[in-house]
Amino acid sequence: MASVDEQLAELTRGVVELHQLEELKERLASGRPLKVKAGFDPTRPDLHLGHTVLMQKMRRFQEFGHEVIFLIGDTTAMVGDPTGQNEMRPRLTPEEVRDAAKTYTEQAFQILDKDRTTVRYNSEWLASMSLEKMIELAARRTLARTLERRDFKERYEAQKDIYIHELFYPLLQGYDSVALEADVELGGTDQLFNLMVGRDLMQRYGLKPQIVMTTPILEGLDARIEDGRIVGKKMSKSADNYIGLTEAPLEMYRKCMQIGDDVIWRFYELLSAKNAQEIAGLRQAGDPLSAKRAFAAEIVTRFHSAEAAESAAQTFAGAYLSHGVPDDTPEVEVEAAGETLWLAKALSAAKLVASTSEGKRLIVQGGVEVDGERVKDGQHQLDPGGRYLVRVGSKKRRFCYVKVTG
User: Fold this and answer.
1) At the top level of CATH, which class does the domain 224-324 belong to?
2) Predicted structure pTM score
3) For 331-405, CATH number?
């Protein structure tokens, strides 16, 4: 087993919250393998790249000889995690949960070491919990502390309904740690409240409290940079901004190429196997298109093969890049009102957007290319006499030739 310092350097890399560092040092110094737990509620049948940020940290623990527990929250999934919800999350049926859980382990083992992973279901202890034990569990947490949670607090202040079963979710997830006697629990930053409830409950049950570590939340394909920071919803299927682990190589490659030029470095930071020096070199080269190609190839290779990545790259280049303009691309003539034609007006006239304001917004967000070059100046002008190939959108690309008349 590696030294404590070596383990700490890797295990804390990229971690957002750590409670508590000294406790982690102490347990690593004991030399015994730690029980490292991470829970996944099977609310949808497939995993996506956002899930792998956490799984990669689990894999690092495995590589240092620790026991990783991949916990499938089949009971908690039916309760519904209120995290990030402004209203009650729709409840799932047992059949929906079972169907979603079927593919979880198979997909997870594309990242985790199967031989070093223990798969557990929290129905093992929660489904058979008696009313007496449930009341005992509820008595170990106050309503006031539970309502401190932002999701509940906002709904309470807005006089929106909070159902009693929702208050039990953090308790049930926390009890998972009691049942497993976890040393460490991993989760996304949005799970900090739930993870800390587990730490608190373990002490109340007379156990050594777990160490809590959170990893960043990966934004979706539609994320963008505003005022020097990334904004956008987290990657999820409900937001349709995800890259699924089971998607076909070409689809996976295509989606990687949709990532914004400025945002691609966030994906490198959280998902790439390249070290910091290699990533810095790519960034300094100043060629985001090449960087995205390299990232797409790395991801497709990881979940399919090098051959699949090469084939996807060739197909993508022929079908989606500037040399792959559809044969049926329409052409429109637009008259310039003055000496030049405002690009946003050209987009509206070509019916690529509903209005000039929408066109301007799309341009600023980096969603428009003219003759293969991305344009981000909202006031960009086209000269009369020119014929321009305009492309809008990333998920559903649309092309049009715009001929500007004077």
Assistant:
1) mainly alpha
2) 0.70
3) 3.10.290.10
Q: Crossing angle for the helix pair 49-63 and 4-11, nearest 10 degrees?
A: 180
pLDDT in tens, 206-228: 999 999 999 999 999 888 888 88
Q: β-strands 341-342, 381-382: how paired?
A: antiparallel
- Sequence letter at residue 245: L
* Alpha carbon distance 270, 364 (integer Å): 26
Class of domain 4-215: alpha beta
Residue 20, preceding peptide bond in cis (omega within 30° of 0): yes
Alpha helices per DSSP H over 142-248: 143-146, 150-157, 164-180, 192-204
* pLDDT tens digits along 308-333: 999 999 888 876 654 456 666 888 99
* Residues 269, 259 contacting (CB under 8 angstroms): no
Residue 311, φ and ψ in degrees, nearest 5: -65, -40
Q: How far apart are CA 244 and CA 47, in angstroms?
A: 6
> How many Å apart are CA 100 and CA 108, to the nearest integer?
13
CATH 3.10.290.10 domain residues, the chain: 331-405
Quick one: which of 248, 253, 401, 379 has its CA closest to 322?
Answer: 401
